Amino acid sequence: MRRLFRLSSTIALAAMMATTAIPAVTGPAQAATLSGGFDVGPGGFQGNFNSLAATGGFTWLSVYFEPLVTYDEKLEKVVGQLASSYEVSPDQMTYTFKLADAKWHDGKPFTAKDAKFTIELAKNAKTGSVLAARLNAVSSAEAKDDKTLVIKLSAPSASLMDTLTKVMMLPEHALSQIPADQLAKNTWWSTAPIGTGPFKFSKYVTDQYVELAANTDYRGGKPALEKIINRYFANPAAAIAALRAGEIQFTYVDSNDLTAFSNNKDFRVIEGNSFVVNYLGFNHDAPIWKDVRVRQAVMYAINRDAIIQSLYGGAAKPANCSYIADQVVPRGIETYAYDPEKAKQLLKEAGWDQINGDKPITLLTYYTTPLAANVMAAVQAMLAQVGINVTPRAVDTPTYNSIVLNPAPDVAQFQMVYAGLQNGPDPGSINVGLNEKQIPPAGPNVARVRMPVLTAALDAALGETDAAKREARYQEVCKVMNKELPWGPLWVAKRNGVASSKLKDFVWTPAPGGGPYQAHPEKWAIAE
Fold it and tell me: What span, in angstroms and rounded, lies between the C-alpha atoms of 494 and 496?
């Protein structure tokens, strides 16, 4: 028998998540303009309009683009967006989606041909798609009729639905004539993008803001707001100043900047787990990291508890693999408690003086907030105490990607990275950063991790379709990571947004990459 799911079925590792919908405020709501710093912070991707290339910024992109399926606002289950239901064949090799009645912003109907077209674009690495590697198991996408899409797999994939939440549907009639290898840099994305969401593209003022206008024909009803504006800011401090001045009504805020808002009735603080593990990625193409004792020394040299308490205000949990959720972290793994003397001894045993000595090691990151700068400085100082000399280099996300995703990178440009990668809601999300098959250009294994035992553990977990056995599979992944240290895992932090108390029915979740999730922007409103 085929299994029929209404799109509210749990598919992921359900974790406790504090998600806040801003409650209704007194006073009549009025049609108005909401301005926000939607691309400030780790979940943002300022200046990116291309959903195929998005590694973040989904909070904003999903206001006008929509996927077939998305997460609910607690990131616990997958629900329908442009699909109303789906069926899975007994062998879990065929997924059949029934599509909702929807229109593109230019009035043309959204059909299964558009969905097939989008899946094929997302699978094609020539388009610049960051999702291509995650869709390797998809062998075909077929439009059986206007409202039925069939996706066939070459092997079962328990993470397919999680991946599909990030595949924003695109219009075949607008993009089919653009060659795949020219799509990524086409001006369509920033001048005339067409989606199906509650707001449609109106204006882009270069490096200043993007404006969206209400889609009055939206299938979910006419939006309460007339316009939504995404303001660009040079840094989080500028966004915070704009929020306090009333120029914007929402932005991401680092934990060390929350005190100005915590007891202020004019603002609501929204806090939740990030589902992102921060780590030090050892570039395995750099000879200095070949000995596991050197990688272990890095872990023992860093006082993670001190950083979490002093810089994060306690709003983070140490990670000893890529996970912190109890159900996928086995008992008895090494905790790498702070022990600089042990770090020095390991370096001595490995012959660090001959391997590298005091030569500077480039530590590359795309985190540019004051909090991240303080974290990098602390890590730099702690490593220096045991004889490892790192030089932090913070760059913007496009620059970072151009360096680490280069198929033939200059190792000297990033012997290490300080980065983050989604480790939930679906635990399979971590695969692309660690599986040997995902080394660029095939995927985003930027650390060039080549560990057959880890790849085998990841493949086994990804192919495990028995939900009762998946947690044990991911515990094996955790054990291998903990022992072999392809990365130096640091912590999973909480994230925070701050919204004006005037916002009504506003939903923001500190999701990995900014989402997507079920936020219902058509309901957002501002009260007088």
Answer: 7
Cβ–Cβ under 8 Å, residues 360 and 378 = no
- Give the tokens for residue 12: 């992921």
Long-range contacts of 448-455 (CB under 8 A, 24+ apart): 448/283, 448/284, 448/285, 449/284, 449/486, 449/487, 450/284, 451/480, 451/484, 451/486, 453/480, 453/484, 454/480, 454/481, 454/484, 454/486
Q: What is the pTM of this model?
A: 0.84
Instruction: Quick: pLDDT tens for 370-416.
Output: 899 999 999 999 999 999 999 999 998 889 999 999 998 899 999 99
For the chain, give the number of residues: 528
Q: How far is CA 260 from CA 39, 46, 186, 224, in A?
A: 21, 25, 42, 30
The position carrying tokens 């108390």 is 501
Sort 409 into a burial class: Cβ within 10 Å, 0-12 / 13-18 / 19+: middle
Residue with tokens 């395995």: 284
Q: Which residues in 372-381 are b (16+ Cβ under 10 Å) and which e?
A: bebbbebbbe
- In the chain, the amino acid numbered 302 is I
Domains in the chain (CATH in brackets) are 3-249+502-527 (3.40.190.10), 273-493 (3.10.105.10)
Sequence-distant (≥ 6) Cβ neighbours of residue 472 within 8 angstroms? none
Residue found by looking up tokens 């971590």 in the block? 430
- Per-residue pLDDT of 83-136, as tens digits, reads 999 999 998 999 999 999 999 999 999 999 999 999 999 999 999 998 998 898
Q: Can you tell me which residue has the tokens 């004792």?
A: 293
CA angle 362, 365, 370 (to 5 degrees): 115
Please name which of 449, 438, 440 lies closest in space to residue 488, comparing C-alpha atoms. Answer: 449
DSSP one-letter string for 395-464: --HHHHHHHHT-SS--GGG-SEEEEEEE--SSGGGGGGGT-GGG-TTSS--TT----HHHHHHHHHHHT-
Alpha helices in 252-319 (DSSP H): 259-262, 292-301, 304-310
